[in-house]
Amino acid sequence: MGEAYIVAAARTAGGRKGGRLAGWHPADLAGKVLDNLIDRVGCDPALVEDVIMGCVSQVGEQATNIARNAVLASKLPESVPATSVDRQCGSSQQALHFAAQAVMSGSMDIVIASGVESMTRVPMGSSVVLHAKAGMGVPKSPKMEERYPNIQFSQFVGAEMIAKKYGLSKDELDEFGFSSQSRAIAATQSGAFKDEIVALEITTADGKTELHTVDEGIRFDANLDAIRGVKLLQEGGALTAATSSQICDGASGVMVVNAAGLKTLGVEPLARIHHMTVIGGDPVIMLEAPIPATERALKKAGMSIDDIDLYEVNEAFASVPKAWLQVLGADPDRLNVNGGAIALGHPLGGSGTKLMTTLLNALKARGKRYGLQTMCEGGGLANVTIVERL
């Protein structure tokens, strides 16, 4: 089996719902990232053999194979195929896994894995809402109802269940939310994101044209007292909007190649894919799967958590990474060192390769070797990717 290498990684700065990226069609948004990856490598676009793109709400402007539409909105030629992937929040992380598997097998040499989500233009849950309005039912089937009677699958409920199961107090979660904002502020002000962000031209409310290069969700005036005062999402719960991921517009991507691809492109790799895992878990508590997924990944890779220099655990809700830290015995100083989705936003299908882009840059900036990324996903799923910076 061959190796898979990442040779380029990029992301847009996040946009708030109805914010600075609201004017961008998602296909064009993703197309700009594809173009940027080509520019970073300096290769003939026709050398790309496939584009695999994560997207959760594949309806409306994100329908009819958003990956192919993004290719047609980019500098890539019509000869480059593309396919769209939905593994919920892990969609583009799964796209990365599929791309790595393709080049490792030797069936392809150069593949782009990417993701996009415009949560402004295609609101979360759009496909379910549209079908319900058309009288076409809901995703939970009669057989699923037999297996899980009277249970409404909910990420919000799952996040609260995790907080309760692992004894996480509201104060702890509020402190984590503040830490996410603080780290994102520090990273932005120090220029830590500069090399990974694709600048996008936008038109402001006053008609001026400027470049969007700063994650719009960051609260530069964040303070712990204000976070503690935010209303609970659920009566008797522990989570608030300040300790949950932000709705976000954004796109991201990485170029993945094998040894033959490296030779063709004539470039040095940024990192090697060291290990990949995906598992299914309890769909009711739902967001707990990153814990057993990480345990399995480390065992299969012959590593311990202490061997990992930095980790990116998606901050869907603060209870998820907090529980992960607790069970794994992981070092909180190595977790989401530049902030996470609580501050930077979570563009659903775009988050997998977004987190990988940030992880690779953080490893480089700190001169570290191994990074681990994991993501909780709807339905009780989780992906884990371990990379070695080269």
From TrEMBL:
Protein name: Acetyl-CoA C-acetyltransferase
Chain ranges of the Thiolase C-terminal domain: 268-389
Organism: Phenylobacterium montanum
Family as reported in the entry's similarity comment: Belongs to the thiolase-like superfamily. Thiolase family.
Active site: C89 (acyl-thioester intermediate), H346 (proton acceptor), C376 (proton acceptor)
UniProtKB keywords: Acyltransferase, Transferase
GO MF annotations in UniProt: acetyl-CoA C-acyltransferase activity
Superkingdom in the source lineage: Bacteria
Domain Thiolase N-terminal: 5-259
